[in-house]
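Ops channel
N.P.: pipeline sanity check, posting one input/output pair.
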């Protein structure tokens, strides 16, 4: 499942390719699962709209759409550059929201490129290209909204004091609190384990038991881990990534995630694997308290 850094990388890649382009028409497939909004609503919100921006919100890709369907050439942008995430542009009339689920992909294609099996949506662009949504397992979701915002705080933008406030009265394990999308939006299992390791905090600790200092360490670790992963993903965005999916992702070397029984990279103690709220969690019993 794509996590925040992957979605950020994909959103940046899409922003560099399609910002400024105009959606001329939309084709939607007959499978009901990928359509979270009715097909007619999606088509009405997308057609003859200009793509003003593409950004990541939590683990969603958000296309900000504005009126003025006059074709203009897309503004080229370097893939590594941070897209504007400054909330919703004033001119935006709607947002097209894409959640990739387990296996969803957004492809920017030439129209003569063969349509892949499991293509559920095609947006034809004024530039002659097509934006295609492909998803074999159909856990991905397409919807439209006005003024969409994630419920939780954005982990790369939240201030330290606000971050501390999110967790300090929680009685759940800190690992569960990190995964709670109503608190922080977009931190998944891998990055939660890696952040807790770097902060020296065991995943089962009650969030409320963490000191201010520990929460500050965790805050720094979450940002560090996500930024490192984005930097790695961002440097590998290319057309080939889009052509065949996940290539270039998950390059961050995991220090504990998926390393149960293997020696800790710091102290050589065997990494432990436990299950918290149905999710596997990995930690070093010596380095994490
Ligand atoms: Zn260790």
């Amino acid at each position: 499942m794509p996590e925040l850094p992957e979605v950020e990388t994909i959103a940046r890649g899409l922003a560099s390719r399609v910002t400024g382009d105009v959606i001329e028409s939309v084709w939607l497939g007959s499978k009901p699962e990928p359509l979270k909004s009715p097909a007619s609503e999606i088509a009405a919100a997308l057609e003859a709209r200009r793509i003003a921006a593409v950004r990541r919100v939590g683990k969603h890709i958000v296309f900000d759409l504005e009126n003025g369907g006059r074709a203009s050439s897309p503004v080229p942008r370097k893939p590594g550059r941070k897209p504007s995430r400054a909330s919703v542009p004033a001119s935006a009339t709607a947002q097209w929201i894409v959640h990739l689920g387990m296996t969803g992909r957004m492809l920017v294609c030439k129209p003569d490129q063969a349509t892949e099996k499991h293509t559920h949506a095609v947006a034809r662009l004024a530039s002659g290209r097509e934006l295609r949504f492909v998803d074999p397992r159909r856990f991905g979701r397409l919807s439209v909204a006005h003024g969409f915002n994630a419920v939780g705080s954005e982990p790369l933008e939240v201030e330290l004091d606000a971050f501390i406030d999110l967790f300090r009265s929680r009685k759940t394990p800190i690992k569960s609190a990190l995964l709670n999308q109503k608190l922080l939006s977009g931190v998944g299992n891998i990055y939660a384990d890696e952040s807790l390791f770097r902060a020296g905090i065991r995943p089962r600790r009650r969030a409320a038991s963490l000191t201010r200092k520990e929460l500050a360490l965790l805050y720094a670790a979450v940002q560090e881990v996500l930024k490192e992963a984005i930097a790695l993903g961002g440097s590998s965005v290319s057309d080939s990534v889009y052509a065949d999916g996940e290539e270039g992702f998950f390059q961050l070397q995991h220090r504990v995630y998926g390393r149960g029984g293997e020696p800790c990279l710091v102290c050589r103690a065997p990494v432990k694997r436990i299950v918290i709220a149905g999710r596997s969690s990995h930690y070093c019993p010596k380095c994490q308290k």
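N.P.: looks fine end to end. Confidence is low (pLDDT under 50) at residues 71-86, 235-248.
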